[in-house]
Amino acid sequence: xxxxxxxxxxxxxxxxxxxxxxRIVALGRDPYWYLDGQxxxxxxxxFEAVTMVLAAVLLRLExxxxxxxxxxFSVFLAELFVDDMDGQLRQNGVGDLVVGKxxxxxxxxxxxxxxxxxxxxxxxxxxxxxxxxRRNLYRDAPVAETAVTATADHLAQFHARLxxxxxxxxxxxEF
Length: 175
Known about the structure:
Layout: H1 3-8, H2 18-28, H3 31-35, H4 43-62, H5 68-91, H6 96-123, H7 126-136, H8 145-163, H9 167-171
Helix pairs in contact: 2-4, 4-5, 4-6, 4-8, 5-6, 6-7, 7-8
């Protein structure tokens, strides 16, 4: 790297969230969701699984949002998600003129998932979580009740595990 490029280059501040985001994506691609949980192994299914895991992590971080670093970290995670989805859309041939519209829908979906999962996970209500998963993760497609229950249980256990992990560890992708 030349002296000039070192002097004038700026590191993307969102990169502090890269390890955690990469871990979220890896967990969203865990075969468990697609085998036991019967999530459709498609672009939409993988989007929903990654969004579900991201939502669980963001919900965990909400407990520490009084800390400005945690709040900023959550924003960085969401921005990395947007960048990733933008790249995925472009890779799948979506043109520049409609990428923004798709991203807007994806961010709206993330917001909806946060609301649906927040309430169900906070109440520990497996039935309510199952309904939220049917509506969002499965998009009301027919799926066996055993798969929905397995997914709801797995997500609830993941969320409970996240609650035992300090925010700094989560921010390092250690979950």
